[in-house]
Structure formats: C-alpha cells, structure tokens
Design goal:
The complex is a heterodimer. By secondary structure, chain A is of the alpha+beta class. Chain A is 53% helix and 18% strand. Chain A has eleven helices and 14 strands. In chain A, a hairpin with a 2-residue loop joins strand 5 and strand 6. In chain A, helix 7 runs parallel beside helix 10. The two termini of chain A are 25 Å apart. Chain B has a single domain, classed as Rossmann fold (3-Layer(aba) Sandwich). Chain B has seven helices and ten strands. Classes of the chains: A alpha+beta, B alpha/beta.
C-alpha cells in the first residue's frame, strides 16, 4: 500500500462519483475541441473563398518611373525604359520554396492597339488562367475559345460600338467579338482582351509578358515571404503583395480565431471553477476520511498528494473523454454550420494540448481543496465523526 | 526528563460556545506509566474524548503540557506531531471509522502507506494482525460486508499494525452488543499484556473493570481515581 494506491482505489471503487467530478472537465474540453475543429474548418473555407477573389501578388518589370494614374485617371508620365519578361521564364515562379502555396499564375501582355480610328488597351491573357482568377467576370455572349476571338470590356465595347458576334480588326489581324464583359469597375472595362499569343503578335512583342498576376495564400507564413522568394527568381522584377487583399483575409481569419479563443478561455474558466467546486465538495465529504488519515500519522503533504493525484488522474481522464466527445460533436455539427464543409479530421496536436490543459487545470483547480484538506485539523475532522 | 510514559501537567482546554468560554478540560494533572491499561470514564460531555485527542497530539490545549516519552507534544510542529502519531500511537475510533472503498487488508495496511517498508513486508505484517484478530478469511472484503464486531476488530488491527507502544481507544465497544464488547475487551487486555499501553475512553462503567486503572471525569475535572492512581 502506497499513497497512490489510496488515490487509485478511491477512483476505481467510486466510479460514478469520479465521473461526476470529471464532468466539468469533459464538458469544458469537449466544447473547446468542438469549437476549434469548427473554427479550423471555417478558416479553411474562408481562405478558399477569399482566394477566389483574385490575385494578391503582382509582378511587373522594374522601372524608375512613377505611375501617374489614380483610379483610372491618367495624368501623363512616360516610362523611358520599358522592360518586359520572357514568357518562357514565367514557369520559374513555380520553382520557389513555397510553390505549393501558389494558386493561379496569370501572365499578360499589355499594349496600345488601333481599332479603326480609336486607340485601345489590348490585353493578351491565357484565358484558362485568367478566368480562374477573375471568377466574378460576367459577360454577354461567350468567353473566347479560339485565338481569333476577343472579349471586350464594357466601356471598350460601348466606345467601339461592338457587340458579341461582331467582327473586329487590329494590327492587320481579324478577330471576332465572342463576348462583352459586364462592368467590373476595374481596368478590364477599358480593354480588349485577346489570347496572349495573338496579342503578342499584334503588339509586336512575341514571347513577351508585361505583368504577371498571382493568386497565393500562405497559411502559417507571411505573404511577404512569398514575394521575396519570387523576387529572388526574377531580379529585374518588382514583386508586390496586394496587402489590402491579404490583410482582409488575415483579419477575417484572425477575427474567427479571436472569437474561438475568447469562447475557449470562458469555457476553460467555467470548467476550472466547476472542478474546484466539485473537488471542494469532495474534500468536505471526505472530512471523516481525511481526519482518520491525519490521526494515524499522515502529514499534510501526504493528504495533499492523495487529493492531487486523484485530480491528475481525473484531469487526464476528463481530457481524453473531452477530446473524444469534442471530435464526435465536431463531426456531427460541422456540416450543419459550415456550408460544404466536412469534419477536417482529428487534430492530434490540438488533442494533445487539450489533454495537457485538462490535467494542468484539474491540478490547479484542486490545489486549494488539497491545501485545505492537508491543513484540516484532525481533531476538528474527528469531532465531525 | 520524566519516568512516566505520559505526563499531563496543568492541562486546560477551553472551547468557545456562543462567545462564552467552556472548559472541556479544567486543570488536569496525572501520569500514565508504560504498560498500563487505563480507562477514562464519565458521562457524555465530561471531556474524556477531548482528553484523548489532546493526548494524541491532535488538539492543542489552551494551557498546560502533554509529555509522551519525555517529548513535549505541543512544542512540536504539526508535521512532527503527525510523525509522532505514526510512530507512537494506534487509534481506535468511535464507530470503527474504516475507509469504505478499501478492503479489510487495505484498511489495515493504510498506516504503513507512509512508512518505508517493502510491499511484501507490509502485506505480511497486515496479514499477521488480521489473523490475530481472527479475520484472515475475510481479508479481501469491503467494510460494509463485515459485521459491527468484525469492523471493530479491523479497527484494532489497523491500530496495532505499526506496533505502536500506545493504543488510544475512543468508545471501542460503543456500537457493539455485550457479547462482542467483551470479546473486544479481551483483545485489548491481551494487547496490554503483550506490552502495549492502552488508554480507553468509555461511558460504560461495565468496561471499566477490564482496565488496570481507571479515572472518572466530570465537567472537565478528574472526579475520582482508583487506588493505584496518583495525582501530582
């Protein structure tokens, strides 16, 4: 017989009582696990949704000139030395260390083209990539399917007086308007959008790319890290993170995480209080027993060891049961609260942390009852016999 | 240095009762020698149980001194007094007071949980005293599976398992029928003959005659001592 035998036998032979004691922890931990699992799924879904809102990194050739354009109003300015990328080099972007964080890479060539008597912005794109990036584009007609079809921005179509199905000629090449974009408020409203190869030919820039838009999201690493990695591969490029888009993503996610953390802290607090109250009740109930232990020569520390060991075992049990229940609850609830989101699976790291937290919490909450039990005057305890 | 095993000097214990001090023990002086069987009798509320807890190092007196084996009990720290109880005393409580979730064997082994003895030694010592009180065949039963007399025997086995020189018994026959009570008294007498000093508190005058000496208390004071007793 050792002190731990007394703790274990008490737990083993009073299972219902112990289950009640562990209940606070089980409820607390399972709530936290459920909440974290749901938040995790929501975070992933938000990231995926936000990623659909376009590029967040732009790579342009390095230039000394400042842009004299704001909100679509051009006030002049001349780039004396316009450099462009070789299209053949663009795949190098996918050789960066964090290549797995890259989504769509959409190169485009830009230039002025004459259509009739008017000069317009001709934008050459790879339509598959561009449409994956600009999921919000809506059109009259259809998106181009062949290299001799073009898509017109709403303002361009209006100014040029063209509609889907109309023929169009520029740079000595004949095109057909397959569709007209509905107004987006962006630069594409003023552009004629063509296949990149055709546009390069019209603009006299074969194999050249004016800028590259990249959609990326880096969970667990800052977006600036990605821009640096891309800049290393393209020393002559200026790679810019569109911080506004990134920040809004991060803020949304952080908001969810803060909410989750806040609720978790509250639940942990209530759980700890519950453990302390039930442990206190248990100590009061065991006054007689503690009195006997003290009377037969147990020191204060011996009594505390018995109580704290029981608390530790209850904490581990409560933590394990809470993690299991929490995951089961998350599995059941997640599809109900997150559209198209399934349970992401058991997160063992979160489970481990919750287990440790439950054990520590149980010990901490039992500290005062244990000290009270240890300090119990044996004569007072025996008088209650 | 004293020649007596237990020496009580000018002992006084006051309790607060609704703002008024009530003397549970009122100026007691006496001693107990090694190997005696002393009964302390008196009516309910006379202070006999308080006297036992003060002698057991569990209840600090308001005034006075308790010396056991020349050790001033209340000059010790609470933890030192706990060690003293473990080494010197075996308690037999009123109403048995066994731990309900431990078997008979485990209950008897509890006082050894804080000693450095080996597991086998603890078990052997516990089984020896259980056998001594005649319950070897019920060693694995829980307390609620035992009769009152059997539970009292377990309480005695628990009190003597660490081989303490002093046994303090608080109403050991209070919850037993007369036949079982006599059996328990015979057991206590036997332990006394083997060298244990036994101090028994009882309100039953019938039990008094089993002791070698007796003291009657009333209102916290010693009322009468038998001829062998001496006041100082």
């Amino acid at each position: 017989m050792k002190l731990y035998n007394i703790s274990f036998k008490n737990i083993r032979r009073r299972k219902a009582k112990m289950l009640f004691l562990a209940l606070g922890l089980i409820i607390g931990i399972s709530t936290i696990v459920t909440l974290l699992a749901i938040t995790e799924t929501m975070t992933v879904e938000i990231e995926e949704r936000l990623d659909q809102f376009g590029a967040n990194i732009v790579m342009v050739p390095r230039t000394e000139a400042l842009s004299l354009n704001y909100g679509g109003i051009d006030v002049g300015g001349v780039n004396y030395e316009v450099r462009e990328f070789d299209q053949a080099d663009i795949p190098k972007i996918r050789t960066i260390k964090n290549a797995k964080n890259l989504g769509v890479v959409a190169p485009k060539v830009l230039g002025a083209a004459d259509i009739g008597a008017k000069q317009v912005l001709l934008m050459g794109v790879i339509f598959d990539q561009e449409l994956a990036l600009k999921t919000w584009w809506q059109k009259h007609g259809a998106f181009p399917e062949t290299a001799d079809q073009v898509l017109l921005g709403s303002t361009a179509a209006s100014v040029l007086g063209l509609a889907p199905g109309d023929p169009m000629e520029t740079g000595g090449r004949a095109f057909q308007v397959s569709g007209v974009l509905m107004p987006t408020g962006g630069a594409e409203d003023h552009a004629v959008i063509a296949d990149i190869t055709a546009a390069q030919a019209v603009l006299g820039k074969p194999g050249k790319v004016s800028l590259v838009e990249i959609a990326a999201f880096c969970r667990g690493c800052p977006i600036t890290e990605l821009t640096l990695q891309i800049a290393e591969k393209f020393p002559d490029a200026r790679v810019t993170a569109m911080k506004q888009a990134v920040m809004s993503k991060m803020q949304s996610i952080e908001l969810f995480k803060s909410f989750s953390l806040g609720v978790s802290v509250l639940v942990v607090g209530v759980g700890a209080l519950l453990v302390m109250v039930t442990m206190m009740g248990s100590v009061n109930e065991r006054t007689r027993e503690i009195g006997i232990f003290r009377a037969i020569g147990f020191r204060q520390t011996h009594v505390m060891q018995i109580i704290l060991l029981e608390a530790l075992v209850l904490g581990i049990f409560g933590g394990m049961a809470g993690v299991a229940l929490g995951n089961i609850a998350a599995w059941g609830i997640t599809p109900l609260v997150v559209d198209a989101g399934g349970f992401a699976g058991v997160n063992f790291r979160t489970g481990g942390i919750c287990l440790l937290m439950a054990a520590a919490l149980s010990l901490l909450a039992s500290l005062y009852p244990a000290v009270k039990a240890g300090r119990m005057d044996p004569s007072d305890a025996l008088r209650a016999l | 240095m004293t020649d007596h095993l237990i020496e009580i000097n000018s002992l006084n214990k006051m309790y607060d009762s609704g703002g008024t001090g009530v003397a549970a023990i009122d100026h007691m002086d006496f001693y107990i020698d090694d190997g005696e069987f002393v009964s302390v009798t008196g009516p309910s509320g006379s202070g006999k149980s308080t006297l036992l807890s003060v002698m057991g190092g569990m209840n600090r007196p308001t005034r006075g001194q308790v010396q056991v084996d020349s050790l001033d009990l209340y000059a010790l720290t609470p933890e030192q007094r706990a060690d003293f109880r473990s080494e010197y005393l075996g308690f037999i409580f009123q109403s048995f007071q066994l731990i309900p979730y431990l078997t008979l064997l485990e209950n008897v082994t509890v006082p050894m949980a804080i000693t450095g003895r080996k597991k086998k030694e603890k078990r052997d010592m516990a089984m020896a005293v259980i056998d001594r009180v005649g319950l070897a065949d019920k060693a694995l039963r829980l307390p609620d599976q035992l009769s009152g007399g059997e539970q009292e025997r377990v309480a005695i086995a628990r009190a003597i398992v660490n081989r303490p020189p002093i046994i303090l018994a608080d109403e050991p026959t209070g919850n037993l029928d007369s036949r079982t009570a006599l059996e328990i008294m015979a057991l206590l007498q036997e332990l006394n003959r083997e060298g244990h000093t036994v101090i028994m508190v009882t309100h039953n005058r019938e039990m008094e005659r089993h002791a070698t000496r007796s003291v009657r208390v009333r209102d916290g004071r010693i009322e009468t001592l038998d001829t062998d007793w001496c006041t100082k």
